[in-house]
Amino acid sequence: MTRPRTTKTDSTAGPAPKRAEPGLVVVFTRGEPASMIIPLVDGELLVERSLLAARGADDARMSRQHVEVSFGGSGWRFRDLGSRNGSFVDGARLGADPVSVAAPRVLRAGDTLFLPCAELNDYGAPEIEDGLVVGPSLRRVLDHVGRVAMTGDVLHLHGETGVGKDVAARIFHKSGRRAKGPFVPVNCAAIPASIAERLFFGVRRGAYTGADEDADGFVQSADSGTLFLDEIADLDLAVQAKLLRTLESGEVVPLGGAKPRRVDLAAVSATTVHLETRVAERAFRQDLFFRIARPAIHVPPLRERAEEIPWLASRIASELGRQLHVSFVEAALCRAWPGNVRELLAEVRAATQSAGDEGSPSVRAVHLAPSAGALFEKTAAATRTTEADEERRRQHAEIVEALRREGGNVAATARRLGLHRTQLRRLMARHEIDPHAYGR
After folding, report:
1. Is the C or the N end of the chain the one with fewer CB within 10 Å?
2. What are the tens digits of pLDDT across the range 375-406?
C-alpha cells in the first residue's frame, strides 16, 4: 500500500497529518475479485494495459492506452482514449470528450473494474470474518467494536437491515472477557408479548397451568456470556422494565419464582431505527435507553462498502458452479442495495440459477433482475428502465437458446433467428455473448 511521505518539523510537533491520496482500487479483473490500489500521480492517471500487467493482472481486453483519469477539487474527470472495447463510468460509455462526475461508483476498462477513491490511505484487502467479507470501512467498525468489548459490557449497534450487525455482535463477544461463555442471540421483533417474560426470564414449575417444570430463559442461558438483543426497539414494555432491573442488579427472578439468581453477562443491542425516536414516542423506556444505548456504533450500509461486493457475489456464484462476468459485477456496483448484504446474496443466487437454466457458463448483467438492489420507490422513468431491461433479457435469452440449439454455429443461429450474420454478431457483442461457449 502506498502511503504519503510526511515531513518532520520539530520535536514538539506531532506527526504531520496524512495527505489525501486519491486513486483507483481494482476490485475485479479477468473474471475474479481483486484488491489492488493504484494511486494517481499529481492528480492524474493513464489507465493502460501495461499498468495492470506490471502488477501481474494483464487484461487482454484493455487497450495500450485506454482511459485518462484525473481528480481535483470539483471531482473526477474521465476521457476515453479511443480504446478498442470502450470505457464506462457507472455503466455509461465514455467518449473522446472529458466527462466530469462528482462521485462516480465504478469505472470499467476492458474486463477490469475500478473504484475511484478520493482517499487511499489505510485501504486494505478485504478479509473474511464469521462468513462475512470485511472491507476497510467495515474493518474500522469491527476494530472499534473489539476495543469497546475490552473495556465495557454494553454496546448498542445501529444500521440498516442486512448490514451485518449480528457479525459485529459476535466480534464484541469474542473480544470481551466473557468470550468462553455462550453467545445468545434473540430477535425481539419475533417474540409475542404474551410469552416474552417467560422466554426472557424463565419460569418455575407451577407458575401457571401447564408449567410442569423449571425452565431457564434467555437471560439465564447467557450467564457468563453475551446476550444479543436484535431489534430491541420492538421489545415489550413490561419486559423492558424487568430487563433494566436485571442489567442494573445482576439478578434475575423467573416467572413464578421468589429467589433471585445472580447472572453475569454482557448485553449487545441492535436496531434499524433510532431508539431516541422510540423513546420520544413512549414506545421505549427512557431509563433502559440510558442503560444500553451508549456506547453506540453505526454499521455502514453495503453501498458505502462497495469493495466487498465482488467478493460476496463471487463466493455465491462459485458455490453454485458459475463464474461472474464483468458486466454482472459492474451492474451490482451501480445499485443501491437497500437490503444490503442479505439482499445481494439472495439476488446473486437467483441470477446464478437463471444463468444455469439458460446454460450460460457465466453470470451476466442480463441475469440480474431489474428490481434487484433498487430502492422501493418507483417513478415513471424507473418503470421505463425496467421495461427496457426486460426486453434486453428476453433478447439475450433468445440468442443464447438459439446458439445452444445450433452448437454455437453463428451462421445457423442467424438463420434460426431470421437475422443476417452481421446483425447477429452486433447483437452478440452488445450482449457480450461468446458463441464459442455454446459449441458442441
Report:
1. C
2. 765 444 444 455 556 667 767 777 887 887 88
